[in-house]
Structures are given as C-alpha cells and as structure tokens.
Amino acid sequence: MTQPVTIRPLGYSDLPQVIAVERRVFPTPWSLAMFVLELSKPSGVCLAALVDGKLVGYLICARYDQIWHLMNIAVDPSARRRGVATGLLARMLERAGPDAPYTLEVRTSNSGAIALYEQFGFRAAGTRRRYYQDTGEDAMIMWRTTADRSGTGFAG
C-alpha cells in the first residue's frame, strides 16, 4: 500500500530539501538563487509534495501575462510511480485555473513526462533545438489550451 501524498505551497524553509531532490534528478540543477527568485514572485504557483512528512517532489509554475509556464517539476527517484507528479500537476491546474493557457519544455527523450503531460491535455507544438546545454538535447515545446482540451487542436 502506498502512503498518501500531501500537496501544499512550497516555502523557503523547503529549499534545502528541494535542492537535494533537484541534484538527484537533473544533470544541470537549478541554483538556490533560481528557486528563491521564483518563490518571491507573488503570481507564481510553487508546490511541495510530501509523503510521510518528507518532501519528495515540487513544482514551479510562473505566470507571464496571461500564460502559465511550467518551469520545473521533479520527483525524487525513490518516490516515483506513486502519483506525486500527477498530484502536483492537478493542484497546479486547480490553483492557476484549468482554463488558462500553459506551456512547458521537456526533453524529447523523456517519454514518461511527455505521456504524463499529454494526460493533462498538453500537446506538442514545436521543438527548441539543442535547448539543454548539458547534453545538447532538443526540447519539445508543449501547450495546454482550451482548444486542446476540447479536441479541436492547438490554439496557442
């Protein structure tokens, strides 16, 4: 039986645990300053996922004018396949608004993340060539719009 996931706002006091997860997950992790900057923006949605009181994942989503940009989402490798990312994305949509437009970039090789984003109505809309400086890998640009959710295609 899996333990329940608690989703709550991310706070500055969570940053040591966030940095630890970030370093385990990404080849080129964000700096502490990058997280502090995003947390300081009043319009952003920054969430923490906890299992048994321990931070196992987080999400950073920033708003630019009327568009939300999913900047960073990570789940500790030891807590994957338990609905943590699903819970974070669902809460993001709840907090920022399900009808708002969203965008993100994802490594083209990250098929698991791409499938998850597709379940939430994100659709491929282009490629950023050599976007990831650490490996030179391309990024898939994905959008979630009202049109995508109604099945009429990309409207961004």
Task: Give an account of the 3D structure.
The protein is of the alpha+beta class and 156 residues long. The chain folds into two domains: 1-96, 3-Layer(aba) Sandwich (Aminopeptidase); 101-156, Gcn5-related N-acetyltransferase (GNAT) (Aminopeptidase), CATH 3.40.630. The protein is built from five helices and seven strands; from the N terminus they run E-H-H-E-E-E-H-E-H-E-E-H. The protein has helices at 15-25, 32-40, 84-96, 111-119, 146-150; strands spanning 5-9, 45-51, 54-64, 67-75, 102-107, 123-128, 139-144. The protein has a seven-stranded mixed beta sheet with strand order 1-2-3-4-5-7-6, sandwiched between helices. Strand 3 and strand 4 (67-75) form a beta hairpin. It is globular and about 40 Å long. The termini are far apart. Residues 149-156 have low confidence and may be disordered.
